[in-house]
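We modelled the chain as a single entity of 206 amino acids. Its sequence is:
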Amino acid sequence: MSHHDPSTAVISADEALQRLIDGHERFLRGEARFPSLQREVLANLAKGQQPYATILGCSDSRVPPELIFDAGLGELFVVRVAGNSLSPEVAGSIQYAASHLMTSLIVVLGHEGCGAIKAALETKIEGARQLSRIQILVDGLLPGLPDVDPQLDPDTRLSRAVEANVRRTLGLIRNSPEGKARMAEGRMKLVGAIYELETGRVRFLD
């Protein structure tokens, strides 16, 4: 892993968020600017990285952050795990990006129809069990699930659980010792977002 070059300018969290929003709008309009890989670009990236945002997303193959935010190589520090769950390893990766690469914006990106959250709901409601390692992951998601309303249809229930999981992860990052320190210093902005599979749109949470 490479470290941030202190001689280069660091953009603010608000600027980073606007850059994500602008890139996403290009993606929705079909105007993504993905360049062909030029040798000078690769040569510069080989010297170090300076991503402007950290994205914690789901491993789902339909939700690649670099594509939906129209970001090029070296622009996003992406951590992906099923259910965008926060394990010690994931937290360590996020802390690395914040402390060594100086990314002040952290986005937790969930998505509609998340299979990991659906499996967690099935465990909570029906007592369903998954294969051993999958169940360990699912068990880690259970605390973030809302109380189940039996009157809700399954799609609405899943949608609410996806958002609740994102908000819980934001809370875990915010309330960690490192998160508290960086928030107190004004050096970190946390944003939750949900990707809609059918429309391709990212909905940023309040």
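As a brief sanity check on the tokenised model: The mean pLDDT is 93. The chain has one domain: 13-204.
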